[in-house]
Automatic annotation (TrEMBL):
Recorded coiled-coil stretches: none
Name recorded for this polypeptide: MFS transporter
Membrane topology: Multi-pass membrane protein
Major facilitator superfamily (MFS) profile domain: residues covered: 1-303
Pfam families: MFS_1 (PF07690)
Primary localisation category: membrane
Zinc keyword on record: no
PANTHER family: BLR6921 PROTEIN, MAJOR FACILITATOR SUPERFAMILY MULTIDRUG TRANSPORTER MFSC
Keywords: Cell membrane, Membrane, Transmembrane, Transmembrane helix, Transport
Lineage of the organism: Bacteria, Pseudomonadati, Pseudomonadota, Gammaproteobacteria, Alteromonadales
Compartments in which it is found: Cell membrane
SUPFAM superfamilies (alphabetical): MFS general substrate transporter
Bilayer-spanning residue ranges: 6-26, 38-58, 70-88, 108-132, 144-162, 169-192, 198-225, 237-261, 273-298
Length: 309
């Protein structure tokens, strides 16, 4: 679309997809509601929203925005202050936007923090791979886009295999092993160069897409699986916020790493640009691997009864 139409179409194409998604949501997703209606937590919404906004801008300031470090630190501290104020207030009001009691459910707490850190690598993936193909390897926009098709196709296929895999192995083993595999595969993309056979590149992207898809499915399921109907909506909303925040932070971290490594390797020749990408992929992969420690805290039987039901 970028190469043959205009860049506007990468946003316009989301409109019909979004309409289909809205129809599917209204038709197939259960309408779960709490037993009692509650007032909307307006102040909590402002505090939490301001925290997410300020923290995201601070992280973007290290990457694409190139903000001075002093300004980044001020934004980060302001965001953390708003987040702390929100949680201190949420513990003493009747109906907070996101109740701290959600974290009394162990699988929710582990799944949410695992999502936060594991998605840093996943968020960097759609940002870094097209840049690697176009900037470092010289692909055209259409060639780079078509090269991503195996990743998307494998991700769709993995969705249908996720349930039997989780039923057989359990959430703890699947998420711990799959997070390690995701980090290793992200780091391995850093080995790609002009000498890499095209079929091998496509195979790496397909494997990465399948692993990434299984990661999303298992993480989201284990986060929400033990919440009751009353907390399901709030828990799902908080998961969505954390997921989007983590993806944004992943792009920001990747941009900051790529900019830093580009400055370190010196003059912008094709070899030095490729080296900067390789170091960035390796770093993002290592960051993702550490998230496996969070999922290892799950018990062997967490979620098994629900999955079988």
């Amino acid at each position: 679309m970028v190469q043959y139409l205009t860049w506007h179409w990468i946003f316009l194409i989301n409109l019909p997809v979004g309409l289909v998604g809205c129809y599917a949501a209204f038709k197939f997703i259960p309408d779960l509601r709490g037993k009692q209606k509650s007032r909307f937590d307006s102040l909590g919404f402002v505090l939490f929203g301001a925290a997410m906004l300020l923290i995201t801008i601070a992280m973007e300031g290290l990457g694409e925005l190139h903000l001075p470090h002093l300004r980044v630190m001020l934004l980060l501290f302001a965001g953390m202050a708003c987040l702390i104020a929100y949680w201190l207030r949420a513990g003493r009001v009747a109906n907070p936007l996101f109740s701290p009691s959600l974290f009394n459910t162990r699988t929710f707490a582990i799944g949410l923090f695992g999502n936060l850190f594991a998605r840093l690598g996943s968020g960097a993936l759609p940002f870094l791979v097209p840049l690697l193909l176009q900037v470092a390897l010289g692909y055209s926009p259409s060639q780079a886009g078509m090269s991503m098709l195996p990743l998307a196709a494998a991700a769709i296929l993995a969705k249908s295999l996720a349930r039997p895999i989780i039923e057989r192995l359990g959430y703890r083993l699947v998420l711990t092993a799959n997070t390690l595999a995701l980090g290793i595969m992200l780091a391995s993309i850093g080995l790609v160069s002009e000498q890499t056979p095209y079929w091998l590149l496509l195979a790496l992207l397909a494997i990465l897409g399948a692993i990434n898809s299984l990661q999303f499915t298992a993480m989201n399921a284990v986060t929400l699986i033990d919440l009751d109907d009353e907390n399901a909506s709030s828990g799902n909303s908080l998961l969505s916020v954390v997921a989007q925040l983590s993806l944004s932070l992943g792009v920001a971290c990747a941009g900051a790493l790529l900019g830093g490594f580009s400055a370190e390797v010196g003059s912008a020749t094709q070899d030095t640009v490729l080296s900067a990408f390789q170091l960035t992929f390796f770093s993002v992969g290592v960051m993702t691997i550490f998230a496996a420690a969070i999922f290892s805290l799950l018990s062997e039987h967490d979620g098994r009864m629900m999955v079988q039901d």
